[in-house]
Every structure is written in structure tokens, then in C-alpha cells.
Amino acid sequence: MDSSNGLRLRLLGFGRSLDPTLLAVLGALTLVGLITLYSAASDHPGNFGSQLRNFAFAALIMLVFAGFSPSVLKRVAVPVYAVGLVALLAVLVAGVSVKGAQRWLDIGFTRVQPAEIMKLGVPLMLAWYFDRRAGTLRSVDFLLAFLIVLVPVGLIARQPDLGTALLVLAAGFFVIFFAGLPWRWLIAMGVTGLAALPVVWSFMHDYQRNRILTLLDPMSDPLGKGFHTLQSMIAIGSGGVFGKGWMQGTQTHLEFIPERTTDFIFAVYSEEFGLVGNLVLTLLFFVLVARALAIAGHAATPFSRLLAGAIGMILFTYAFVNMAMVSGILPVVGVPLPLISYGGTALVTMGMACGMLMTIQRHRKLVQS
Amino acid sequence: MKPLRNPEREVLHFRERLMVASVVVALGFAALCLRFGWLQVVRHGEFQARAEQNRIAQVPVTANRGLIKDRNGIIIAKNYSAYTLEIEPAKVEDLDATIDALSAVVEIQPKERRRFHKMLDDFKHLDSVPIRTRLSDEEVARFAAQRYRFPGVELRARLFRQYPMGETASHLLGYIGRVSTKDEERIDHFGQPANYNGTDYIGKIGVESSYEEQLHGTTGFEQVEITAGGHPVRTLARTPSVPGDNLILSVDIRLQQIVERAFGDRRGALIAIEPATGDILAFVSKPTFDPNLFVEGIDPANWDALNGSIDKPLLNRALRGTYPIGSTYKPFLALAALELGKRRPDSITYDPGYWSYGGHLFREGGPKGGHGAVDLHKSIVVSSDVYYYALANDLGVDAIHDFMQPFGFGELTGVDMEGELAGVLPSSEWNERRYHQKWYGGETISIGIGQGKNAFTLLQLAHATATLANNGVIMKPHLVKAIEDALTGKRTLTVSSESGRIALHPGNIELVRSAMVGVTTDPSGTAYLAFKGAPYSAAGKTGTAQVVGIAQNEKYNEKTVEERHRDHSLFIAFAPAEPGAQPRIAIALLVENGGWGALAAAPIARAVMDYYLLGKEPAPGAAGAGN
């Protein structure tokens, strides 16, 4: 009796220590996600149930990670990165090919995508590295940091999985940026990047080039390459200010929107809830990102603040890239909309990231400097 | 760079970077919101319209084509519903492999395969081309079970045209066929492209073509909500189609059948008209063909057989065959002589069996030494050529032309069927225009016995005979008597009223009529034997037309050529023909290369009269025995 009472008090205490703003905005996004998926997957009702289980599992993961102390995260950073790197090499040698891309690793009972590990593995590793070097940073540290990022990014890009490679690159870049990458480096990199565009173009696969060409003029080939973008733009535009109403989207329910439960689910939401719904959703994501950045601002250690800052910007990148792609201002890359798109892997990654934010917030610096 | 040693300064630097990141985040989300505003407010109308366009398909609902019935309500063209197997060429990579695989499921004959390829060539705009029609229930079930193996092959229920009487009245009915590029021009010309949206078939010839507008009906439309895959989900709105009107023909299809049977294998044409109304009672052109062959596109083998035949079964002889009409012209010339005062009824012309003009002897068939003294009555009964040689010479070609024109010789009758030919009623003016030479007086002599440059259609001859029987009152001949609303059954008569009147003295008509009755009743009459024992009075005239200048063709064997040099056999008649009676039927017929008119043509006329006036069916083979 005593011990169970004590456990209850401890759990209550743990619950109260979690950030209420973060919990509220995550709850709201989960609600939006489930409502939208119910409509998008109306022809596959099973998806809704399995997404409910995914959410439950992701929530559990989040709470577990929220329970770890940031020092635990710091300790696992190097092993996670190392395991991820080995797995990426293994994919290169013995991966399973699906649709012309070698992304999966068969580990007996299931298949995993090692690239997914690196979405958080790279920022963890970099945060650990800069934390160790805190106070003694030199130019060479930034060079080494870029190496830590570019090795896995290169391996992922070779699979090929350009979308994930860019997301991992972005995640790594955010840590380096927050660690204090000098502005002149940034400017030099920007200029070099622009100059290198033609070279990148020449290394691209046809389908990747098509996605970019389509973006520039989706009407040029409305039934071919441009079909995805055009149909999702029609869905969004026809939604108008107030939307067509839940379950009433014609583009959705007559199957004009491709990948409508996963990457293009935002078009479903947008068609049914209109501009008002879009502004609400954008606001929710803004609050989520702002809260993550605020947590970073009050974090106790360099490791924590770099990790929290990077997680905030990763969340922003996912939400922005997905909505920009669906509304036709970025090329089509395989990026799900956090908490809204159907799929367990992305949710688990989200759960981990948010759990990390929560434990960083629990262990924040209590004295304002 | 210099290392940073102060942790406090480090935190400040970090917060500076956070500020920059926050600005980037705010700008990013703001850009998205602007994009949403652009798509959902500014361009909302455009995308709304596109979403509706995506969602809603206008599906035409084809109207049922009107039926065609005879004057007694017997159906001679109808529709039936059947399953077809159709291939959408755009969706099939290897057509031949698909057809091979299909033939293991349903039977596909080489004939059907050829027709498929021909249709593919002929109609490039077709989305879907039938490979098999009229599938049995069992075949439908077998294909349905294996449908997944055949993407681009669809099972469709369609309405088909059927002509239940087969070869009967084919030249009259015509047929429908697939809409061709030429038909599309015609549709555009009449401003009907919307109404033909979804229509696969159109009348090609015959009544099916000339009454296309009435038969087709009005195409309806369904607004159907469709999925991206094109599958209909539900119907949003429906404008029903209006079925085409039924045609009630003036033709008596049983009479038509009796005539066609009476002709047997012989070539020729017969038109029967009700004089008081202009109703065409029978419209026969032999040989006939089976219009059902054309509906789904005729296969090459059948086409070659029909088109290459020496008998020209596709030629509408009644409407488009122009012939010299021989002695059947004589009653009209006799009437001209009386009306123009060139002969009195008792004027005698001596007939020694020949007539000389400008040193040339015009001979006649018939008894050796001629018919002796011939008056007007006898000239028709025994068919004296000499009487008409002299008469034609006295009248002159232009007087003959002017008298005959109102009867419709050499003129379009205006019958309600496309493709009618006018033929030639010669005059000196026409001759100069046509041949750039003066009319030679000797040519007029041949005109007197219906030879020479005369070339009339059987329809014209029947029409003129009906006008004569109707005392000079002209009724435009027509094939369709009434248009029947398919839904209400309400009939609208199309029958024209009197379209003209030729001023003739009743006494003169009576003289000619009486002489024509003599042809069938006087033992010396040329059709006496054919009409012996008839319980009604019939006015008739035989005719024998020389076949001149048949095209020599090496393909035809000698015997056939010989047979085809024989004279055409003609006959005109009307009955009942008692004084003061209103004739119920007037006919004109021709048996190609039938020989003497009294032998081949007159017995067919007898069979027609016996059936139409007495309801007597001819004994099998009886009427055809004249050959």
C-alpha cells in the first residue's frame, strides 16, 4: 500500500514536471491528425485503428524519454550514431531493394530504415561533440562537425533517398549553426551551394529532376508528372475560406489526391477545413516550434540547448517542407507532416524528439542568467 | 578563430542564434499562410471549378431509335439489347495478343477479327471498338470471371438495330451504320453535334437515312460523380433522353413480300402507289440484300460479294435505275394526241407492220403484215408501233416533252428518300444543250414507242400511272405515312395534300382507260392471258424495251452476256378500273432482260392485284412461272 502510494505520488510528480504548453499543443495536433486521417482513410478504416495504436506507442516512448535525464541522452549519443553508421553501411552492402531504392535492412523479424535513426542520431552526436568542445571551439571543430554530418548524409543519398538525406543534413546543420558557425562561413557556403547547383542537377535521378521541373510548372503535364501537385493544389484551392466540411472533400473521397493518408494528407485537411483550418494548424506548429526554441533558450547545458534548438528547427523543417510541397512551392520529397500523416516510424521519432524536449525542460536552468 | 571561454557569453551568442532561427521560422510560416491565402481566396474560384470538373462527368444517354412499321403496324426495324465485347485500343499494348487470349474465353471468328481491324482503320476516332457482338449468357459469365486478365477490354450492354424481315424491303429501309467522318460533317452541318454525343450509329441510306432526324430522338445527359479512376459513384442530375419517333410507312410489307417472291431470282423493280393519296404500297428493287449485315460494319467477304456481283444487289433500281420504258409510254402519248387535237378517237392509221421515214423503215414486232386499220383504242390494246411512229412524228419532240413533263417524266418526284435520279425527258432544247447538235426528226419516231433518248425511273412511271388513274390529280409519292410519338403513340400524318392538277378532259381519260382495260380483257389484248379470269377490272399496258449498248466486260461469260442483251419486260396497271371507280392501286414494274412485257412482267402485276384487291396469296411459284 505504502509503496504503491509512493509510486503514484512519484508518477504524479513526474506528470506535473512535464511542460504543459508542449503537452497541450501535442494533444491538439494529435486530435487534428486523427480527425483528418479518419476522413482521408475512410476507404481503409483499418488505418485509423492502427494509427491510434501508433499514437499510444509514440506517447509511451515520449514519456520514457521524458523520464531519462539529459545526461543519459548524452551518454547514448555516440553509440546511437555508431550503430546508425554501421547499419547504413550494411544497407549499402546487403540492403533490400524496394522500387529501385535500397533503403531497408532485414534484421530477421522486421525491416528497418537505418536512415530514420540518423534523423535524431546526427543531432545527438553533434550536440555531444560540441558539448565536449564547449569553451575551446576552433575552426577545425566545425570541419569535423561537417564530417560527422556528411558521412551519413552521403550514405543515405546513395541509396538513393534524397529527401531523408536533406532532412538529416538540415538536422546536422541546425546544431552546427546553433553551436556558433561563423557568419562568413555561412555566406561562403551559401554561395558555393548556389554555384554547385548545376553539378547537383547532373547527379540527380530522372524522377528527382521531374519533381523539380513539375514544381516550376505543374500545368505543363497535368496528367503525368504534375498530377500529384496539381490535384493537391486543386484540393487546397477548392477548400476556400471555410473548407468543404469534414468528410466532404470531393478531391479526397473521389481519390484524386495521391498518397492522401501519408505525405499528401495536408491536402485532405486543407480541402475540408479551408483557410481557417490552415491558419489554426500553422499556428499550432508555430507554437510547437516556438516552445521548443524557448526550451532551448533555458536549457542547462550546451548539449541540452543544442539538442533542443535542433529539435525545434527539425520540427519546423518537417512541417514547413511538407506543407510547402503539398501547396506547390517546393518539389515533391517524401516528408510526412508530423503528427498528421499516417505511419508509425515517423510518430515514434516524434515521440522520442518530444520526450527529449520534455526532459531538457524538466532539467532546465532554474536561475535566470 | 578565437576560442570562446566565457559560458555566459556563449549563452548570449546562442540566444542570438535562436532569435535568427525564430525569425526564419516566423517568415517560413508566414510565407505558407500567404500561399494558402493565394490558393484558397484569390484563386478559389478557379480551383473550385477544376474540382467540380474533376468530379462531374457529363455522360450522354443515347435515345432509343424509333421503330419502323408498315402501314398495318407490322414492325420491320427494331432495337434489341445485347452484350458486346469491346476493346479500347489506347489501353491495350498488343492488340493481337489480347485478341488471341480473348478467343480462348469467347469464340472469335477470323471474320470478326478482320472486321475489327477494318473498323479500327475506318474509324480512327472511336474510343472503343467491338470485337464480338451478341454474346451468349454463358460467354458473358465466362468473360466476367476472367475480366481482370483483360485490361482495356470491356463488356457493354448496347442497343442494336435489327431488321427482322431480313432481305425484305432492304432498298426501302436502308440501314444504319457507325458514324463516319463524313456523317460527322453532316451532323455538324445540321448543327446537331451535341445531340449526337454518344451516338454510335446513323442512318446510311433508305428511309433510315432520310428520316434520320425523326428516328434519332434527343440525347439525354446524366451528371455523374466519378472517381479519379473514372468509375461512376452516383448520379447527380439527369436529363432523360427523348426516344426517336416511330415511322409508319405507307408500304404494305406483306404486299412487298409477295412482289419480292414473285420476282424470284430475276432482277428488276416494282412500285405500287395508291393513286388517291400517293402512298407507296410497295417499293421493290431486286435483288435485295440483308441490311443486318451492315449494322455492325460489314465484313470484307460479304462486302466483296455484294459489291462485286454482276447483279448489282446494292443498286436501288426503283429509285436510281433509268430505263427506256417501251410501249408503256403509249397510253400517255394517246392522251397527248387527244388533248392536243392531233387524233380523234376514230382516226385510223393503217399499220402494215412497218413505217418509213426519210428512207428508213421502222419495223414493229407482232403479227406479220401488221395490225391493219388501227384506231386509238386498238392501238393500245394490240400495241401498234406504227400508230405511234406516225403520232410521234405528228406531235414532235417538244410537244411530247411539254405534255409529259407535268406527269413527272424526267423530273424528280420528290419522294421522301435520298438519291433519286431525274432521268431524261428529251426535248430539242435539251438535245442542243446536252449534245450540241440539232434534234434529228427521225429520233422522234423512236420516242413514240418509248425508246430512244427517253430514260425514266420506275418510280416516275408508277407516279405517272397513278396520276393518270387519279384523273390528272398529282399526289406526291411518299414512303412514310405518319410519324408516331414513341411515348404517347400520337400519330402525325406526313401525307401531302394534292400537289398539282393536270387539266385533262374526262372524256379523253376515259378513252385511254377503256383502251387499257382492253389490254387485259380483249382476247387480242397483250395482257389478256395474264389477267384472264380476274374478278376485277384492271387497266394495263405492256412494254418491251430494247437493251442497247450493254457494257462489254470480259469478266462476264458469254451466256450471261447473251442473257443480258435480252429486252427488258415492263408493265403498268391500275385497278379497279370500271368507269367511275376510284382505282386503289397503280403499279409500274420492270423485269430486266425479261423479254416480252406480256410474258414476264404482266403475271407479276396480276399477282400484286390479286393480293391487294382480293387478299389472294399467289400459289407457290405461280407468279414466277412467267420466266
Descriptive notes:
The complex is a heterodimer of chains A (369) and B (627). With 369 residues, chain A is mostly helical. Chain A has 14 helices and 3 strands. In chain A, a hairpin with a 4-residue loop joins strand 2 and strand 3 (111-112). Chain B is an alpha+beta fold. Chain B has 2 domains: 58-81 and 155-249, Penicillin-binding protein 2a (Domain 2) (Alpha-Beta Complex); 253-550 and 569-626, 3-Layer(aba) Sandwich (Beta-lactamase). Helices cover 37% and strands 21% of the residues of chain B. In chain B, strands 2, 3, 4, 5, 10, 20 and 21 form a 7-stranded mixed beta sheet that branches. In chain B, helix 14 (330-339) packs antiparallel against helix 21 and helix 16 crosses helix 19. Chain B starts with 6 loop residues before the first helix and ends in a 13-residue tail after the last helix. Chains A and B meet through helix 7, helix 10, helix 12 and helix 13 of A and helix 1 and helix 2 of B.
**Largest beta sheet of chain B, briefly?**
7 strands, mixed
- Low-pLDDT sequence parts of chain B: 549-558, 623-627
Helix content of chain A: over 70%
Strand fraction of chain B: 15-25%
Shape of chain A: globular
Structural class designation of chain A: mainly alpha
Structural category of chain B is alpha+beta
